[in-house]
Amino acid sequence: MSADWEQVRAVADAVLYEGYLLYPYRADSQKNQSRWQFGVLGPTGAARTGIGEDSVLSTQLLVRPHDRPEVSVVVRFLQLQRRTAERRCSGQRFEAVDELVTAHGVWLTWDEAIEHEIQFGPFDLAELGAAQTCHVAVRPGADIEYLEGGRLVRSRRELRGELTVACEPDDGLLRLSLSITNTAAPASSKDDAIAVSLIGTHLVLSVADGEFVSLLDPPADASAAASRCKHQRCFPVLAGPPEESRLMLVSPIILYDHPEIAEQSGGTLYDSTEIDEILTLRIMTMTDQEKAQARATDPRAAHIIDRCESMSPEAMLNLHGVLRNPHASGEPGLIPELPDGIEWWDPLADGAVDPAVDAVLVNGVRVSRGSRVRLHPSRRADAQDLFFVDKIAHVTSVHEDVDGEHHLGVVLDDDPAADLHEWYGRYLYFSPDEVEPLVQ
């Protein structure tokens, strides 16, 4: 298994378990009464009758062929596993209970999940043509775990589905059409429907002798073809490291190209894209009784509680984000460029800039916090600016807006309330061409 594939798998696992278990991780919490939120493919007719989700996920991808491209498809999903706690009555007789208390722990009746990963292909795109159908089948099963005073019965229903794959040319590229459909018989209730659903369904594709085209930011020669691609209940993105174009993740949640797990993350928290730091702090404020209830709910919840309780101060600080040292050796830079693939609205962009240490060049002079400048207001139609002509000020911050324009926050040197303004952040703002650096 390549390192690139392992990176994709880490992201795919996060997608697979997104929303699996919601804070406060207790079976009796209101949030956990409807846990399965993403990528759920329900049985036939479940969406129409209001007892489950639609049965189909479909997408169209673009492949730039090199010679004779082949595509492999991995279908990944969860199968619901119903865990029933049973208390021993007498002899070999057991009765189902909501809670089983033993000398070694407490167990609740609860729905768990089993991972499944099924690979299809490789498909020769030169010969694929019309749709080819592959069957998805997972057998039913049951396991019994005996405990002191009772047992846990884990049962799983049969799952059935179909993967269809087709290919056709489009503007010198190949348009690959895929759909995954749950073909289970109609269900009679919500519990029945979720038991035969494919949960957290997503696809991971790899191509040999070709490359995938980004559908979020397609090159000019693929823009028209990308606009013709249709997607239902999924978001296909390039996967693996930024230079990789042979892997694609078809996700049930919105992602960007080349997604990755943040290095600061100590492990999954499952809870619908919550921020790790906030959720970890919430877990630490849970009472001992609440933690015990969470541990009794699911082994994954117990692991979360244990991990948060044993977290070191350094690990907790790491969750707070990445800090840049403004006193690091070397020549200080200007406002940094955002990393490739990061847009201004992405929270990751916040770590790339810092108004307190960033700088701009004005007439060849580096201007940053603490620089002294003479003001020459000219760009804004504000009568009050006339009072600041030729005034001396010191820079407090350097900003860049979403249009790429730079702005300097300043405080007047001769303002009697200068210290107060700087304390609570009430600055005057000017563009770089409205100031004259005063070289000391």
Number of domains: 3
Estimated share of beta-strand residues: 35-45%
Order of helices and strands: HHEEEEEHEEEEEHEHEEHHHHEEEEEHEE
Q: In one word, what is the shape?
A: flat
Mean pLDDT: 86
Number of strands: 20
What structural class is derived from the secondary structure elements? alpha+beta
The profile of the biggest β sheet is: 11 strands, antiparallel
Q: Report low-confidence residues grouped into runs of 5 or more.
A: 323-331
Q: Tell me the radius of gyration.
A: 29 Å
Task: Please estimate the helix content.
Answer: 10-25%
Distance between the terminal alpha carbons, to the nearest Å? 59 Å
Task: Report the total helices.
Answer: 10
Observed structural traits:
single chain, alpha+beta, SH3 type barrels, 10 helices, flat, 440 residues
Your description of this structure?
By secondary structure, the protein is an alpha+beta fold. The protein folds into three domains: 17-32 and 262-321, no CATH class; 36-260, no CATH class; 347-437, SH3 type barrels (Roll), CATH 2.30.30. The chain is 18% helix and 37% strand. A hairpin with an 8-residue loop joins β12 (235-238) and β13 (247-251).
